[in-house]
Structures
1.
Amino acid sequence: MTIDLNAYLGHWPFRRLRHNTADGLLALMDRAQIDIACVSSASAIFYKNSQAGNEELAEQVAGHEDRLVPFAVINPSYIDWEHDLRVCVEDFGARGLRLYPNYHNYGLRDSCLGELISAATEHDLVVSFPVRQIDQRQRHWLLHIADLSLGELEALVERHPDAKFAFVNGLGFTNSRLGQADSGLPGNYVMGISRMCALMTNEVGALIDSVGVERLVFGSGMPFKYPEVSNVKLAAMDATEQQKEAIRSGNARRLLGMQ
Amino acid sequence: MIIDAHAHITRHSVEDWEARDDSIIAGADALGIDQLCVSITTPSKPSTLEDCIMVNRWAAEGIARHPDRLLGYAYINPGYFQEALDEVRYCIEELGFIGIKTYNDYRCNEPVYYPLVELSIELGVPILQHAGHMHYYNEVQPRISDGAMVAELANRYPEAMIICGHIGGGGDWEWTIKALRDAPTAYADTSGSVVDEGMIEMAVEVLGADRLLFACDNSLTAGIGKLQGAQISDEDKEKIYAGNMQAILARRGE
């Protein structure tokens, strides 16, 4: 079984996405042999009121709950987010959050984010952060959004030891405390492998050695990206089948509280 | 058969260059890549002639350690005119390199490129041009070429084989693909760490599979994964994986 912790439905304003409806994504998942995907609204990244994107997502996910696990995009600096969070959890069945501090104009150290993470922890939600959404070289002329700082994510992990974090679409973790043994950080986070090197410099192997395979998850970034790239990475990496299975689904199942 | 048309091996100023080169071969083995067309970039930017010669000798030594797997591009700054041409001719005729690699010392539609292209035609070898188009001023690479410049050069010399480097590593790939549309003799390589879904399909639709070359630029799993995922015919994939590069290599000596 493969669980993709980083998938999307909806629109991106600067490039046409394909496979971005529930039916389209399910077909893409079948093609790439991905069983379950944690999906969030790409549209919500740019909507001022991100809840509208969560509502669109809920409409798409309805009837496909066995394969599509909704993650809510919540902007804690926007009015009424507490209500939105409650609706996403209670009515839409959200199992996690996808957060965009740099797109939504708040900082990783802002109190509003701390309040949201505390609320998410009460609901046992996975709090995921894309370290980047798109490659900087490809950015639109209207937009320049920086990647998240791994150093600030370290501090976030320390401030919220009871939360469950997922850092997806990132790399360079081996250069931060997040990827180092004996860092003193709580073990409450996982990292997606989609941008990590699994051959040559082999960041994936280095992280297995340093922080353990239980910190790594499959998160392709589809349909922004070809999901097959993460499959190739997983197949080619120098790891045991047991370790690959943990990355492919075991760690995500544990994180999501799946049986 | 899979040929990676755009790869790099390691500078010999790096202490463990042999181990690093071996890891590239091991990665290629893991992914079924049979051959890699490689160069070494110069430490100096803009590239000095001395550095170009140095990295080309390093490349020859690196290739000699894996002669069945690695093919060489002669790395050159065309601004050195006759000395640059002499170095390229030496690399092709004496060292057995298969092509020319140019970076960002000049934009490739500048006249300084013309003698180099004319030599590539004489020798029957391709030029792999580093390229990218960003929608902002690229202060790190102010003289980077883009797809439109590659197209202009290719249309000026339609008998040449100009390869636009890394559509997946050069900024706006939709822009690059469209820029190459009306340059029917220009090629594009698929390399780069960007693996946006639909990239390969658009390239095939706009340029045709005959003008695409499989490549990784050392992002090995990205290179293989995007081709595996691309919804194009098996026949087109075979052309991209190896057939088109084999045809380019066969033109030498014609």
Note: Chain A touches chain B through 34 residues (CB under 8 Å).
2.
Amino acid sequence: MDLSAINPVLLVASLMVAATPILLAAIGELVVEKAGILNLGVEGMMIIGAICGFAVAVQTDSSTLGFLAAAIGGAVLSLLFVILTQVALANQVASGLALTLFGLGLSALLGQSFVGLKPPPTPELNIPFLSDIPVLGPILFSHDPVLYLGIAIVAGVWAALKFTRAGLILRAVGENHDAAHALGYKVIRIRIMAILFGGACAGLGGAYISLVRVPLWTEGMTAGVGWIALALVVFGSWKPWRVLLGAYLFGGVTVVQLNLQAAGVAIPVEYLAMSPYLITIVVLVILSKDKSSAPASLGRIFHASH
Amino acid sequence: MTDILLSLKGLTKAYPGVVANNNVSFDIGVGEVHALLGENGAGKSTLVKMIYGLVKPDSGTMTLRGQAFTPSEPRAARADGIAMVFQHFSLFDALNVAENIALGMENPPAMRDLAMRIREVSENYGLPLDPYKTVGGLSAGERQRVEIIRCLLQDPKLLIMDEPTSVLTPQEVDILFETLRKLSSEGTAILYISHKLEEIRSLCDHATVLRLGENVGECTPADTTAREMAELMVGTELLTPERSGRDFGEVALDISGLSADAPSDFGTSLKNVHMTVRKGEVFGIGGVAGNGQDELLGVLSGETTTQADAVRLHGGPVGNLGPTARRKLGLLTAPEERLGHAAAPDMSLTENAMLTGSAREGLESNGFLKWGLAKDFADKIIKAFDVRTPGPENAARSLSGGNLQKFVIGREVLQHPEVLVVNQPTWGVDAAAAASIRQALLDLAANGAAVICISQDLDELMEISDNFAALNEGRLSAPRPTAELNVEEIGLMMGGAHGMEVSHV
């Protein structure tokens, strides 16, 4: 066992990379849940994003177009959820689970001819001066743009929910859809937009796995990250910055356990592999003790009865 | 009133199977306080929803200040100066007062300016409010203020109020009426919907009465007795419940030193409650909503268990028993919320009868259900309490509120309870049905049962209860014989206007 082989700077830098897929998916789901919708299809939308992004990036040789396609792919799949729950008024839990199963199956089909290929590299930001700062440079200033985009989305969602009228209306719809409807707000329309945003974010998160984190395509490669993202939203008490914290915690423990495995720590690999899930959930359960409450209409079907 | 603000002509709206409004016409003058009367299902709500743009009329026209008025959505109605305070508050618990108000405005100013205007307007009209308080923690009276201020900030020409006083203490009602009179004197017309006829007599200039969707008459409330108005609404003569002289027997239910935590975040915890109810007694518990009524009912029904000794039935401890065990011993309850608490909305009336009646009516044996007997029991309730439904196989949800209430109360009354606890037994029920429910409770007491009636309707408590106590922030006042009390004293027992004085200018 040689712990000195672990480089703390690289560790932190790779932690941020490991956290980004969950972060993207979770912040999208946070917006969806704030609007009062429970979409359990995050995993399905992520894997569709992963294969759409991978396929387009390989075909066009452009990772930018890949990420764009991933966002569109995730949003298109979430459209299915929209039709089921907002138009046909189907149960949200069942529809979400169906979305995940369907997404996993469809992605395997779409990805058949892409197994074993390599995607074009996603360029890393190289800011001439900042990236050369010893410790801070590699940690803060030499990642790919999508990682920064993820943080920017978190900040944007936080500010929008807190300071803008659109955010207020979104929260109102999630809090009491009947009252929002009585005041004349378009509950269904607002929710559809939230679901599409959530789908696009999940798609981006999926593509981040297939294009940056593990740059290749294998079936089912999201491996439950979508479910962790869902749990993060709940345990993060529907607060954007707490979701970011949770994502980094999960990413951190994941990277540490990989490093420990590489360093040959004498703990069975299975324990190490399950540790990120355990630790993240335990920490977030403790954090979420102050019940700053779920949106009151979460998961309830809205039917305009007037 | 000389100037006509809003004129309705021949408004008709039909839903599948029912005509909610049939050819309704009347005028509202500028600055007039106009009452809209009618039983449950008479079509009052549909009518105001048409004015507020939530529902489109099938035929008929509305004219606002001489111009054709066809609001396509509430936004358009608001832009034309129509504002509405809803019966069930349309507020968002997790948001603060200012955010709630901003949501009801077209172009709200920045939060800071809005908060200032809220303070200004609310004090000007004697309804003080803190713009940064979270609505979930406000009393019912304060919540209504939020709704009213939201309307007033729009500078409305017509203010629609749907049953605004059902949740207020008498003192809060006085404050509200002051505000409404001030508004009316400033030229704002008010369309006022209420079941409380005495209130309408003191407040309104003019009244229109609806029955089964049709305009059946108009009157000047000040010159008409409450009884005449009630009979106009019902269409027949009204029976008032009779209280026969009766003697109280031994103690049936005894609560001593009961404290219980609130089960939810926005609930009220019960603090050191003492109460003794004897056989043959109707014990009335008043108080503004949210002062521990639901929690007290939970403790009595067994949904919340406490120390065994805190609740005693016929001297035996039952505080630690669940609802079914208590039912077997003769302690029955009918909670306030009809859909979801007292009845399962999507289950049939037979199934609902089975749910609470199985133990006492012998509707099950060895874990198997006797559906035949359950259906007979449901039929018996429907017949005895005049529940209007095609039959017991219909879902509870399909009944109107008043009819379901009759079913829910009847279901408990017919199980021959020894102690019956009811919460808001006539909430949202029209005059005739309310009278029959009250009569059933009195008959039950006359036959030797103890009845505990939790209600926010003071007239009801004055009418049926022998002793009265008030709940205020989870504390129960000492009981007093109802015959010695007047409404003023009751109001003070309930906690007055919750420390919020009138600050009229």
Note: Chain B has two domains: 4-234, 251-493.
